[in-house]
Design a protein that fits this description.
Radius of gyration: 23 Å
Structural class: mainly alpha
Strand content: 5-15%
Order of helices and strands: EEHHHHEHHHHHHHHHHHHHEEHHE
Shape: globular
Helix content: 55-70%
Oligomer: single chain
Strand order of the largest sheet: 1-2-4-5
Amino acid sequence: MTPWIYVGRFDPGFLGISIRASASDMHSFGLSDRSRWAPADVLAELGDHAVVSDLSRKTVLDHELRHFRDSLLFPFGAAVTRARIHASYNGFQAATTLKLLSGDADTLPIPLQQWLRMPSDERSAYLAGKTGADGKPLRVPRLPVITADDDVTAFPAGLHGFDRADALLAGCRIALADYRMIDRLWQSPHENAEKAVYKAIDAWEASAMICQLAVIERHVGEPLMQRFMRWIERHGPAVYRRGLTGLTACLERLNWPRTLRNHLVLVTWAQMGAYESETIMSSPGLRLATLASAATLGSRWPEGSAFADLARDWDAVVGSDSFGALQAANASFAAFCRRSAELPLLPPTLFSSLAAARRTMAEAFIADPDRYVTPSDYLADETRYPLPCVGLEYPSEDLGSDWADSTPRDWSPAVDFDSTLVLAGMAMLSDSLFLPDEKSRQRDGSRVIANALGLHPRLLIG
């Protein structure tokens, strides 16, 4: 029997931790006591299904908590959060414009990411002979054709309110570009002719997995932690396996032992690329590969050195300034928050609290970076760094998904649940419209579209 891996999400469409639950899980998760653990000797006697499932459930919040903090700290987090907010807001604006201009349309081909790129003759061929439930030909909204290489640099960066005659065209163009940017960031910036081997998402998950392993070790001991890690390395999600394997390979080049701290030191530095001034060189995989190559040629750095010293030496290898990149990203993100707070629809406090959380996170890290990369020290004080709200997402017949505030009682969230729920609603509609099923994070996008726009979604195949 395959263990159940409990997976949360840090998706900046909801600026906290989101846990996707079934209706039956919803109440049990909310009542779960994070302080109570099964005895290690009892767990040791159980099979992998029970052990991995239990430990996964107990530590899913710890895994997602590291994602939240990494997103507040690293330039990558600033870039992907900004792009995600852009996509959600601009896509929602495009959706509301579509509703106003859809006329007598009754059907909407989705995802728009595919339909908008389809030439007019292919659209006509697709619709030919197809009828709705009433037996009549499908009536679809008139939507522009937008090529895959559409250039939107003429538009100012940021969130847009569309009030021009070409609102629908502009909205769709910008939303598509926003989603392209998100995908490019997670896949890691790289030259078009190349393929990213170790992606940003691999490093992202490795960081959270290492912290999750540290929590397991702290509560039930190293043998069970090692057992959990071996299961992940053999059977866990591919992104977890790639993340850990890539770090282990680099540690071997450095001639460092495979401790949790050494993994965390590497992956923390790897994610400190600037992403604005050195986009491709900011890729965690490229930073690690450059470091590994230097080690192969004989460079050595003492294991256990202060993180700031290692970062300085490793920056010299890749030609970057990691701490300077953090500060520059924060300044840029703070300016984005100030501009965005003036726009309608989203609460201004969403942006002021998000900017304040990034500032707090950066100050705490810069004051003592070793605490953030030393698992025992990092776990010693949960309140030292910003805490998120926790949203439990569960199925809803009316909305596709609904949310419940499941923030632990002793947490004071940096961004409150009600404010970020407004953004999550925008993301729900925008994702349902624009993204294919394998990339959309919505449970039932068709229901979302039907309820919000009054159109029957028709899924494009191929």
